Amino acid sequence: IQQVFKQLFYMINAITLNNLLLRKDVCSWSTGMQLRFNISQLEEWLHGKNLQQSGAAQTLEPLIQAAQLLQLKKKTSEDAEAICSLCTSLTTQQIVKILNLYTPVNEFEERVTVAFIRNIQKQLQERNDPPQLLLDFKHMFPVLFPFNPSAITMDSIHLPASLNLDFLNKV
C-alpha cells in the first residue's frame, strides 16, 4: 500500500509541476497559496492514514518548492539567495521557467525582472542539473517485496519420487 501511494503521489507531483511549467496563467502568487494548501491537505491525509513512512510526501518536494517560489518576493539579491537555497529539488531550468512565466494577479505585484532572473542563473550556474525541464510522469518506482524467511528447515523437506529429482543430493 505504501509503494502504491508513493507512486500515486509522484504522478500527482509530476503532472501538476509540468502543468505549472507549461501554463503562464497558473504561475501566480495565488496559485502558489492554493498549491501549498492542497499539498498540506495531502500530507495531513497521509499522516491520518499512517502512511508518512511511505516516502509519498517526499515525492511532492519539487511541487512544494515551486509553490514556495511563487510566494516568495522576487526583487533583491537577498531574495535571489533565498530562492537558490530553498529550491534544491528544482532544476535551474525549472526555476528560471517559473520566474519567466510568473504573472502578477493584481496591481500590487510586479513582474519578475530580467536582471533578477540573470542573478538567479548566475548563482545556480555551478549546479549539475539534468537538462530536462519537465518531469517524467511515467516514471515507475521499483516494487519491493519483503523477504520473509520460512520456518521450515531444508533437512525436514521430503521430495517425492514422482518429481524425478534423483540427481539432487543432500549435503
Automatic annotation (TrEMBL):
Domain Dilute as annotated: residue spans: 1-126
Xref: Pfam families: DIL
InterPro entries, per the entry: Dilute_dom (IPR002710), Vascular_dev_regulator (IPR052072)
GO molecular function, one term: GTPase binding
PROSITE patterns membership: DILUTE
Name the record gives this protein: MYO5B protein
Source species taxonomy: Eukaryota, Metazoa, Chordata, Craniata, Vertebrata
